[in-house]
Structure formats: C-alpha cells, structure tokens
Amino acid sequence: MTDEPQRVGSAPDDHVTAQALDRARRAIDEHARMVADFPAPGIDFKDLTPVLADPVGLSSVVTALTHGCRGIDLVAGIDARGFLLGGAVARELEVGVLAVRKGGKLPPPVHSTSYTLEYGTAVLEIPASGIDISGMRVLLVDDVLATGGTAVAAAQLLGRAGAEVIGVAVIMELDGLGGRATIAEGLGADLPVHAVVNG
C-alpha cells in the first residue's frame, strides 16, 4: 500500500480532442448568443447557454476541454457554470468532480478563501471533511476566463487543502482582460491554461 493517490483517469487522445476542438468552435460560432449592454452598458456578453443546450455543442465542448490533459485525479468546477462543465469533463476523464462553491453554500467545516473583485470581495469554499484531496492533481474548469482572479483564488484554495492544480480549462477566454497574465502571476507562468475559443 502506498500513500500516493490512485490515478484512475484516462484522457482522450490528442487526435480525438483536436477534432472536438474544431467541432466545439463551430458550435460556438453557430449557437452562442451576443447580448449587448449586459451586465453593464458598453459590455457585449457572449451567452454560451445555447451552445451547452445543443447535444453536439455540449459533447464537443466537453471533449475539447480535455485537450492536453494527462495525469488528472480530480476535476474542480467553479460555481456555478463550472459545475455543469466540471461534472461532464470528469466523466470524460473517468475521475471524480469537486464543486468549488461560493461562500455560505456548504455546511461546516469548510476550507475558504476570500479574494478581491473589481466591485468588492467574494468567498470560495470547499468541504474540509469527508473528502481528502491532498496529493491530488486537479484540473480547474470554468466557462469563462475574464480577469483571472476567481481561478487564482480557487487554485490557491485547493492548494491549501493539499491538492495541486495542474491546469485550467475554460470554454472562452475574454480578450483584453488579462486573465492569463493574472494566472501566471498568481500561480506560475508554467501552469497550462487551455481555452476552447477567445472572445
């Protein structure tokens, strides 16, 4: 017996995920809905809900998010759309999933972290009992990478619980908001960040 976590997952091969990337990008082009002035005037919001409601869109996006994944023990999905994706990606990789929740949603005890947003602060939590993630290699999943603060906070929270975040995967990286740079600064320039599309 060893204290090493058992690695049960298996990733689709790169040829399969590369084909899924092409299909996912076509599905996003076809189904994503642009909403002007949301959530504030001057912001154009790209709604991915119709993409995920389409069976081909959902399937291709989920497989595309696994592109380049190797040696994953656990997928962590960030509240809330990351839950939808995280569970599906974990199923694809044949590993478990952990929900990284907004503050106040989990019963105690919890591991928690607060972090600064452009409009205030927020709290993320994961269970502190019943789940031992120490030593696990984690893929962090969300729908959108914007400024990167939430991803950094989630990865640091998982790290304090003993896990190692070895990659971040998102459907869309928003251009011009510095999310990738924030992740590099907060988590290290070598941490892979995979986005299906940029927008």
From TrEMBL:
All residue ranges annotated as the Phosphoribosyltransferase domain in the record: 72-172
Annotated EC: 2.4.2.7
Pathway where this protein functions: Purine metabolism; AMP biosynthesis via salvage pathway; AMP from adenine: step 1/1
UniProt-recorded Gene Ontology molecular function terms: adenine phosphoribosyltransferase activity
Keywords in alphabetical order: Cytoplasm, Glycosyltransferase, Purine salvage, Transferase
Subcellular location: Cytoplasm
Major location (coarse): cytoplasm
Broad enzyme group: transferase
Pfam families: Pribosyltran
Claim: Membrane is one of the keywords in the record: no
Catalytic activities: AMP + diphosphate = 5-phospho-alpha-D-ribose 1-diphosphate + adenine
Record-annotated membrane-spanning stretches: none
InterPro entries xref list: Ade_phspho_trans, PRTase-like, PRTase_dom, UPRTase/APRTase
PANTHER family: ADENINE PHOSPHORIBOSYLTRANSFERASE (PTHR32315:SF3)
Known function: Catalyzes a salvage reaction resulting in the formation of AMP, that is energically less costly than de novo synthesis.
Quaternary context: Homodimer.
NCBIfam families: PRK02304.1-3, PRK02304.1-5
Matching HAMAP family: Aden_phosphoribosyltr (MF_00004)
Family membership noted in the UniProt record: Belongs to the purine/pyrimidine phosphoribosyltransferase family.
Protein name: Adenine phosphoribosyltransferase
Organism for this UniProt entry: Gordonia hankookensis
